[in-house]
């Protein structure tokens, strides 16, 4: 299926520029130029888009509200666009489920690189999800049925919680999760875990699966947010 991208931004001139540049590489792009139309598009999402490019500052309904609506039913990657250069705006978007961001003004080549990277991640993960039983990338293999983990074909012994944590993050490559979200998913209870203990838990898991502890390949720390599983294809 041809890659299709949805863009929601109120700057029509910018939308046309992005459309022209993205479609040079064989990607189809559709856009809407207001928050209310974007919200309805996301709420009734029927087309199988590979990526949503979303401006935060929109008339009628803002981008964060649209993002929250999208995340009720869809895990497609989201690239945020914002004219603000404040870290808090980026952190809020990442906490709500965005996958990446660009601050306006940005270079078109950087935009294209982010778009293709997110599409590639989503496409590979979707293909893996169809197999259901295994998650594999860059030397790491996770068997969801047997609960076995291999790094470079070597068996890695994990505790039950370590496996659940790894499987959860690896099932959403590129997406940042807060410590609270991780704890709720893996421990299945309200967040009451001391941050230092969670950090130590992550560190222990990293030592088992990552040969380069000083520069983790798999579980990465997102400053001010939490953690994400990074997949480079």
Characterization of the model:
This protein has 233 residues and is of the alpha/beta class. It has 2 domains: 4-127, Rossmann fold (3-Layer(aba) Sandwich), CATH 3.40.50.2300; 132-229, Orthogonal Bundle (Arc Repressor Mutant, subunit A). The chain has helices at 12-23, 35-43, 63-70, 87-95, 108-131, 160-170, 179-186, 195-209, and strands at 4-8, 28-32, 51-55, 78-82, 100-103, 134-137, 140-143, 148-151, 154-156, 176-178, 219-222, 226-229. It is globular. 32% of the residues are buried.
Quick structural gist:
The protein is an alpha/beta fold. The protein has eight helices and twelve strands.
- What's the gyration radius in Å? 18 Å
SSE topology string: EHEHEHEHEHEEEEHEHHEE
Net shape: globular
Residue ranges: pLDDT <50 for 5 or more in a row?
none
Provide the β-strand percentage band.
15-25%
